[in-house]
Amino acid sequence: LNGGTISGGTLDQQGGAALSVQSSSSNRLVGVQVLGDLNLTAANAALRVGGNLNVSGTVRMGALNCSLGFEGSQTFQSGTISCESPPGGSFGGMIEMQSPGTLTIAPGATIRGGRGTIGGSWQFGQPMTLVNNGTIASDVSGALLTIAGPSFTNAGQVQAINGGTLTRSGGPYVQTAGDTLVGNVLNASTGVQLNGGTLRGNAGTISGNVVNNGGVLAPGSTAAGALNIVGTYTQGASGVMNVEIGGTTQGAQFDRLTVSGAATLGGTLNIQLINGFQPTSGSFAILGHASRTGTFATVNGTSIGNGFSFAPDYITSSTQTTLVVQ
Asked: What is the per-residue pLDDT for 89?
């Protein structure tokens, strides 16, 4: 496609064929269901989309300085947008708005890869409101996927895994439902607002302040693990922190949240024993912080059995909140 419009109907190119998009900024798909792949693999390749994006395969943004521009508010209904640009050039793949509006990622649709920007500015650069009900994954080692624009809300799945870094720029990272998995780095200079869903760690780091107003923070993902916050952590009355304890090794056998700044505590702490572990003595430093104010209003799961229980200790150390077996 080089300077034209494909409008309406179905573009059936299954069986290995793919539509190759060239560098003209007038390339357009309007109300087309694409069966197969789209390739933006020529330098400065650009494609404008109207009437929602519905792809059965993959949109490969494999060129330097390539652009996928949405003409006003739309839904990315199905398929995968894969940011695969090589090093070099000004940037990799740019997913942007041709006119101001909301891009909604539907359940089952995915944006993944590295060297890409969602809500950026290259060919078009109008403000994007991004709503994720599908999946966004920064999953390429050493590469950066950026969510830009004034507004982003996650109610689906977001992942920073496999050595990939996810950066939120232009506004806060807001989650109302769904799940965020931090297995490497999440940069959020204007903060993370956890209003619902789950924020999980897997030896990852969040750079930015985290406010948990109504979600669940779990330092481990599918087992005990660790999460680091370079910033502050605030847990409100409706916030929840889940910790798993399955041994005596911090961050590996029992969950650990480390906060470089101040921790302000409230809400609920849920404790769960795993791996058949039943301690009869000792303490578990589940939370590290530069300073702390407040305490968990509710602590569930304190009973260990055999007459033993966990008790939160906020007093012994100003830089550690621990669970003491008594």
From this structure: 62
